[in-house]
Structures are given as C-alpha cells and as structure tokens.
Design brief:
Elements: E1 5-10, H1 21-29, E2 32-35, H2 41-44, E3 52-55, H3 67-79, E4 83-88, H4 98-107, E5 112-115, H5 120-127, E6 140-145, H6 158-161, E7 166-171, H7 177-186, E8 194-199, E9 207-212, H8 216-223, E10 229-233, H9 236-247, E11 255-257
Parallel strand pairs: 1-4, 1-5, 2-3, 2-4, 6-7, 9-11
Antiparallel strand pairs: 7-10, 8-9, 8-10
Helix pairs in contact: 3-4
The structure holds S-adenosylmethionine.
S-adenosylmethionine is lined by residues 13-14, 38, 88-91, 94-96, 119-120, 124, 171-172, 198-202, 228-230.
C-alpha cells in the first residue's frame, strides 16, 4: 500500500475566517483530522462528513493522549495510506510541539508538509486593533511560555524580559501571572506598564481586559476567565485600550476596560 501524507496545519487563533486558504484546502483533502483542544467547534464544523475526526486534546498538566502516542498515531495513519491533517491551534510551530511531530515523521520517512497558521499573539492583537510593534513605542516583540514544570520555578530570563522597548507576549501564563508580574517589576519594568489580557480571542466568547502590571492580578481574579488566555505587556497595550474606548463604546458586552 502506498504511504499517505501528514499535513501539520495551523488553525489560527479561533475565528474560522482566520484559517489560511492552504489550511482550508488541506482540511478538504484529508480523510483523517487529528485535532487539539484549542481548535474550536466552529472550525471542526468545516470538516466534511465522513472524515474521521480524532480528538487528542490536551489540558494544562493533563494530557489525555500523550505526545508519544500522538506521534505514533500520525505515523501509523500515514503508513496505512491515509491523508492526515494534524490540526493545531494558532501556528503549529509556536508552543505547539509541531516541530516534535515533524521530527518523528522525518525519522519514520513519512511525507509531510507544514501549513503555517496565525499565532494567537498576532491574531488576537491585530483583531483587537493592537499593534505588537509601533514606532517609538515598541521596537520588537518577544513570545514566551508562562507555564512551568510541576513544582519548578518559571525558567525565564526576567532581566532581559523587563524591557520597556519590547512588547512581551505571554502564552499559557494564567496560572502563574502573579509570579510573572512580580519578577518583571523586580527587574525594573514599571508597575504602571499597560497590559492587555484576552481570553478566547477572535471567537464569539472573547473577553478582554486592559490593566497595568500592578492591577492585573486583582482584575483577573474578578474576571474569572475560562479558556485560553494571552497576555500582551508593553506600551502598545495602551493603544489598544484607547482604540477600544473610541470604537467599541456602546457595543462592548464582551469587553471589560479597566484603567
Ligand atoms: C499550547 S499554546 C499553543 C499556541 C498556538 N500554537 C499558537 O500559535 O497560538 C496555548 C496557549 O496559546 C494561547 N492562545 C491560543 N489561542 C488563544 C486565543 N484564541 N485567545 C487567547 N489565547 C490563546 C493561550 O495562552 C494558550 O494557553
């Protein structure tokens, strides 16, 4: 039997209209879709009837299907001649373990492609009218993961991250946000640095918070976010807040603005 193929496909931040044309094509041609928890139902609804859908969804610190098994599953399906889409939230190579899956496919000699997706930072920020860089405010941007291995401190270079010239985007940081704020302020980032926090960005369930470093932990507790949350820290967050106040007044049920 001829070996099949695997497409590692980025599903974007949540809105199905933010899938790339190439992602839509790959999903249309697949006969199996292996997907993660972050992929919303509205995107799964675009998969044709009769296509096998396998949920390998992962929760923080809880992996219903261990990564090794996902890797083996992709190899097994391709060896059985299937055309497989491995559908992952955002971009498959940003905090998505897509590169590990690519390495396994390479080692097994399985043909594969990588279809880029809009990562949460870029999708959630731009859709909220927020630039990640802006002349005079932020000359660069850094993406970091704010989660930790059990009982270990966060392994981040706080000194270099506490840079007022650079926008800092924290993925997976909700559980550790107090520690993140404490470390950034301890390394000299102003406690009044603006922060934009967004939950389930670009979906109908989206909720936003505008705060500053020192108010963020309290404001977050009141918000009780549920679902994926992204933090964007830096001067550019003030632009997002101003634009939100100008453009969303009167239509902001999903938006909580906190000065
Ligand atoms: C395992 S990482 C995967 C990131 C993904 N590969 C990407 O490029 O966006 C999951 C984290 O991404 C962030 N995230 C993904 N989608 C999001 C969304 N729609 N709204 C807010 N945060 C999101 C959250 O920080 C979440 O905990």
């Amino acid at each position: 039997m001829a070996v099949g193929k695997v497409s590692l496909v980025g599903a974007g931040p949540g809105d199905p209209e933010l899938l790339t044309v190439k992602a839509v094509r790959a999903i249309r041609e697949a006969d199996v879709v292996v997907y993660d928890r972050l992929v919303p139902q509205s995107i799964l609804d675009t998969i044709a009837d009769g296509v096998l859908q396998i949920n390998v969804g992962k929760q923080a610190a809880h992996h219903p299907v261990p990564q090794d098994e996902i890797n083996e599953m992709l190899v097994r399906l391709a060896r059985a001649g299937r055309t497989v889409v491995r559908l992952k939230g955002g971009d498959p190579f940003i905090f998505g373990r897509g590169s590990e899956e690519a390495a396994e496919l390479e080692a097994a000699g399985i043909p594969y492609e990588v279809v880029p997706g809009i990562t949460a930072a870029q999708g959630c920020a731009a859709a909220a009218r927020m630039p990640l860089t802006h002349r005079g405010l932020a000359s660069g941007v850094r993406y970091v993961a704010g989660h930790r291995k059990a009982n270990e401190p966060l392994d981040l270079d706080w000194r270099s991250l506490a840079d007022p010239e650079t926008t800092l985007v924290v993925y997976m940081g909700l559980a550790n946000i107090e520690e993140i704020v404490r470390n950034l302020v301890a390394e000299g980032l102003s406690a009044t640095t603006p922060v934009f926090a967004i939950c389930q960005g670009t979906t109908p369930q989206e909720r936003r918070i505008y705060a500053c470093l020192e108010t963020l932990p309290t404001v977050l507790k009141d918000a009780s976010f549920s679902g994926p949350v992204l933090f964007i820290i830096g001067r550019v967050a003030a632009i997002a807040m101003e634009r939100s106040e100008r453009n969303d007044a009167g239509s902001s049920e999903a938006i909580s603005v906190v000065a």
